[in-house]
What we know:
The complex is a heterodimer.
Chain A: H1 2-10, H2 13-50, E1 55-59, H3 63-72, E2 80-81, H4 83-90, E3 94-107, E4 112-119, H5 123-126, E5 132-135, E6 144-147, H6 149-155, E7 162-165, E8 170-178, E9 188-192, H7 193-199, E10 205-206, E11 208-213, H8 219-226, E12 232-236, H9 237-280, H10 282-290, H11 295-335, H12 349-375, H13 379-383
Parallel strand pairs in A: 4-9, 6-8
Antiparallel strand pairs in A: 1-11, 1-12, 2-10, 3-4, 3-11, 5-8, 6-9, 7-8
Chain B: H1 2-7, H2 9-13, H3 15-52, E1 57-60, H4 65-74, E2 82-83, H5 85-91, E3 96-108, E4 114-120, H6 123-127, E5 133-135, E6 143-146, H7 148-154, E7 161-163, E8 171-178, E9 188-192, H8 193-199, E10 205-206, E11 208-213, H9 219-228, E12 236-239, H10 240-283, H11 285-293, H12 298-326, H13 328-338, H14 353-379, H15 382-387
Parallel strand pairs in B: 4-9, 6-8
Antiparallel strand pairs in B: 1-11, 1-12, 2-10, 3-4, 3-11, 5-8, 6-9, 7-8
Helix pairs in contact in B: 3-10, 3-12, 3-14, 10-12, 10-14, 12-14
Amino acid sequence: MLLLALRNLVRRPLRNGLTLGGLAAAVAILVSLLAFERGYERALATELNRMGLQLMLVPLGCPYDAAVRVLKGRPIENSLPEGALAEVRRDPAVAVAAPLLLAAVPRDRERRVEMWVGLDRAALQLKPWWHAAEGRDWFSGDDSVIFGCDAAEIEMRSPGDLFFSPESRQQFRVAGVLERSGTSDDSLFFVPLRTAQRMFGATGRLTAVAIRLRDPSLLREASERLQRIPGAQVVTISEMMGVFLNLVGAARVLMQALAVIAVAVSVLSLFNTLLAAVVERASELSVLRAIGASRIQTLGLVCLEGLLLSVVGSAVGILLAAAAGGSIEEVARQFVPFAPPESLIALTGSVIWRGLALGLVAGLAGGLYPAWKASRSSPAAALKGA
Amino acid sequence: MTWLRLTLNDWRLRPLRMAVTTAGVAIAVAACCSLFALNRGYQEGIRLELNRLGAHVLLTPKGCPYDAASMALHGATWPCYLKQEYLAEARSVPGLAVAAPVFMTAVYESNATAIVYLGVDTNILALKTGWHITGSFPSTDDELLVGADVSKRRGWRVGTRVSLPGLSGQSATVTGVLAPTHSTEDSFLYLRLADAQQRFHHPGELTHVLVRLSDPNQMDRVVAELRGCDAGLAMNVVPLAHVFRTIQGVVNSTQLLLGSIAVVALLIAGTGVSNSILMSVTERTKEIGVMRALGASRADIFRIIWVETLQVCIAGAVVGIVGAVLSTPAIETWARSKLPFVPADALVRWHWQAPALSVALALIAGSVAAFLPAWRAARLAPVLAIRSREN
């Protein structure tokens, strides 16, 4: 029966090909969206968890806005006075407070943005993955720079090399190159905090202070106390994640709705194709019935054709989604407000199963009526030689 | 015009197939133009709401300014407060026309409906130039100004002595009723600032300050100076134009993605159309052969099939647009539950552009879809076609 169904499909390559293509495109979009949803949430959670942070002290203004600005390589409007750091460190609930100064250097010609980060030693306690693959893992002097592994690859530098930064007109010596960590650190340029402040004309200013508490249960009271520091506000990591997911989520819901509509449209097309096949083969189906095929068998045959079309369509769609995953990810990165460096697209088993299940449902939805119609064909018509 | 009648043949012969094909186009077009309308309504709604505040700059406690702007618009109990001393300091910045302090809080009645109280002083009248008050603005602590909805729902008139909902045992006299503003303000209750602070036990505290500049072009300078003063370190200075720009930026960046998925949906509908016309060409091979034999040129056949395809697309587009307009309330409710920072105004806004663009897209998709079957039909050799087994 499977063979018969297949042969019927192959008889009309153009028509069935078009139907299949439509369904595949719809399923590909839906599967990519589902995969993105999973991947983004997971990558965001791992990125934030690995740092072991509970709080960030940021300048007044929207933290979301600040994150977007950093990402797009625009300067952040506000910064923190360095005095805030001392105040944070005086707080009894704070275990580690790591200041950082972030600056974006746009490289217009190469169409990318270099991110420079000024750090002090406290940062090491918040970055358990910080190991030098080559060279030393801390700065040897004011003019030393440490590269993330991707940054080192792009600049083609190894420890001991000299590195000239045209923006700050300063010669740096490469102290080390970090091991790949799978975080955003991989593409960053690290310099000592003081050097960064001098380079970017921000003496005595900080972009943010990352804070780890002695005990996560102190979160509430600690953030209340820290909120009083003038010129600064406290954001909890869970709040931040909520904002990101919320914004991405809204767009995602709209996109998923559209993808579902695309699938619905392709189901209609499938319905038409099968119905036409049944009408065209009316006499053939009658003959089948006359030589002893039961109504159930003819129904099954046409249903099987529908299912074959839709399942193959979904499979092609999933393959398409998998193949296009890389480029989709690149596009998505430009749109999401905070893109963790890990893969954003998680084509997990459950996503694939859902895609295939969707195909099955689509096949049944589009195939049942034509199949029922086929099962109505009467054997008498064939015998009469119609 | 006989050929035009010929193009309608398919509708008569295969009503179910044509209906299903049309439905496919309709669904895709409906999705496209609802999306346009939604996008337009969202941005327009946010712009209108921010305008209605009547302020250029919002001074709020520390925290996300988007949340703050949303709370100031929709009414809520604020998590933190500003000290009233900051107001005097902010007023010393040159370039401020009006700085209206507000104390806002929401209380709940027994049936869980929120009642939003605002404490304001007469400065607010300089900001809200659109307000028309029947009666007078509260001049003593025992007086109350109410929004139009409140007055209508509870039957409060000027001079009524009312017990304040959500505040057991407290009462006030209504001295003014606002004319409808068609915004959330219609359901707010206004007390004098000091009165509200005292009734809600937050003396000397504000939730936000609405600031109007004497010259909006001076925005950057004034914002910098507000941030620079001592009080500026303890509060957020939020230029509302900036809030709007950022939200617009987020919306715009997703627009491209959404648009491309909508176009793919249309393309899929296009393949459906192409397919269904292709089937009818196959079925009517004989008929086409006869037409050719009777003197119809290849161009005639091509044109008939072409027009037939466009008919399906136009019919689909019209049905889709009507369907989208009819389902506006449903889309509105759905979108409201899914989007962040939802404005109170209508989310789905119809404008001739959305349907026009959708029809144009459907026509383009239709023309592309028509090409394959029309070309196939035109290529048929008359003799072979008449002899063919089909039909």
